[in-house]
Amino acid sequence: MKLTVPWEELVLMMPLVRGQQTLSRIEKNIRELENELRALKMQKSGFCIKDIINDTDKMLLYTSFPPDVFQVLVNMVNRMSPFNYYSGWTVSCFTIEDQHLMTLMKLRLNCKDLDMAVRFNTSRGTVSNIINTFICV
């Protein structure tokens, strides 16, 4: 004996089936995004001014300036923005403070561009672009 479902019931079940498929896709997207978020949380963040601004000894070590003098210098540099970056492309992944920190660290510590790139979690080209631009400013 063959069981058949009346076509009216099939028509009524279609939205439910589509909803379940949509729900499955959404759940899959959520799992993928959770995995991506876990991976991003595990990544080491780059060095930035927030890491040292409240420690005068570290500010003196990396920049030769105490925090208040650093802020005065940043405010002076901010008055000159927007910058025409040396390589022709704008650096948008770093604040002006972090770019200024990078430049002062280069001058104070004479770090190689690769070292700076590793510290700030960026490319060597970005480091070079920032430092060349700020040296000319």
Automatic annotation (TrEMBL):
Domain named Transposase Helix-turn-helix: residues: 95-134
This protein's UniProt keywords: Coiled coil
Name of the featured protein: Transposase Helix-turn-helix domain-containing protein
Tagged with keyword Coiled coil: yes
Residue ranges of coiled coil: 16-43
Pfam family, one: HTH_Tnp_4
UniProt xrefs under InterPro entries: Transposase_HTH_dom
